UniProtKB/TrEMBL annotation, chains A, B:
Keywords recorded for this protein, A-Z: DNA-binding, Transcription, Transcription regulation
Residues annotated as domain HTH hxlR-type: 7-105
PANTHER family in the cross-refs: TRANSCRIPTIONAL REGULATOR, MARR FAMILY
InterPro entries hit by this protein: HTH_HxlR, WH-like_DNA-bd_sf, WH_DNA-bd_sf
Keyword Transmembrane: no
Originating species: Lysinibacillus xylanilyticus
Statement: the UniProt record of this protein carries the keyword DNA-binding: yes
Entry-linked SUPFAM superfamilies: Winged helix' DNA-binding domain (SSF46785)
Name listed for the protein in its UniProt record: MarR family transcriptional regulator
Molecular function per GO: DNA binding
Phylogenetic classification of the source organism: Bacteria, Bacillati, Bacillota, Bacilli, Bacillales
DNA sequence: TTTTTGTACTTACATTTCGTAACTTAGTTT
DNA sequence: AAACTAAGTTACGAAATGTAAGTACAAAAA
C-alpha cells in the first residue's frame, strides 16, 4: 500500500554507482591519476560515453579534471576524497565476486 | 597499449550489480522474502522490467523463486545464500552515501 | 608553407534498453 | 456468466548506448 521509504541519499548513491561504466571507471581511477586516453584504452569504453560519465562524476565531485597545458594538451583525471571513499565498496564487490562468482558457461 | 586485465569475476559482478534496479531489488529483498506485487510497489519498478530482472537474478542464483499454490497463485522471492552475501556491499554503499551524498539542489 | 600527427573530445546515426499502459491466464467469488 | 486477483506479457514510443567518422588546436615533419 505505502511506497518506498528508502533513504534518498542511498538512492542517489545507487543512481550514480549503477549508471553504467561508473563503477568500473572509479575502480580504474583507484590506481591513480590517469589521462583520458589511458582510461579509454584500459576500460574499453567509447569516447562518447566516457566523456559523458567523466563529466557526470566531476559534477558529483567524485572525479577531478586537470588540464595540463602541454602540446598537445593532456587531461588528467583523478579521484577526489569523496571518490577515494568509494574504495570499501569496490573492495566488497571484489571480495564477493572472488567468493561467489564463477565464469565457466 | 595493453588493455584491460581486470578480473573477469569482478567484471561479471559489476555487470550484474550495475544492471539497473538489481542493487535496489537486492536491497529490498534483504528485508526478507517478499511477493512479486510487494516488491513492485515498494521499489516502484514496472512489471515488465521487474520480471526481467528477477529472472536474471534467479539465473545468477542470487534470488530464489517459490510458487505458493494459493488462489490466486502467489509467488515469493527471496535471497539465496549468494544473495545474502551481497549485504556487505549494500552496507558499504549506505555508509558512503550517509557520509558523502547531499541532496539539496 | 603545406601536410601530418597527437590529444581530447563531438556529432550523426543505428541498435538496444526502458517505461507505460493495456492485455492475458486461471481459479474464485458474486 | 461476470468480476476479481496475482503474476506476468505484449506492443510501442522514448531514452540510453555503441560505432564510426569528424573537429580543434598547436607543433613537428615534409
Amino acid at each position: 500500500m505505502d511506497q518506498k521509504k528508502i533513504c534518498p541519499r542511498f538512492e542517489k548513491a545507487l543512481k550514480i554507482l549503477n549508471h553504467s561504466w561508473n563503477t568500473l571507471l572509479i575502480y580504474q581511477l583507484l590506481e591513480g591519476s590517469q589521462r583520458y586516453s589511458t582510461i579509454k584504452n584500459q576500460v574499453g569504453i567509447s569516447s562518447r560515453v566516457l566523456t559523458e560519465r567523466l563529466k557526470e562524476l566531476e559534477i558529483e565531485n567524485i572525479v577531478k579534471r586537470t588540464v595540463i597545458p602541454s602540446t598537445p594538451v593532456v587531461i588528467e583525471y583523478e579521484l577526489t576524497e569523496k571518490g577515494h571513499a568509494l574504495a570499501p565498496i569496490l573492495k566488497a564487490i571484489e571480495q564477493w565476486s572472488s567468493m561467489w562468482v564463477n565464469i565457466e558457461e
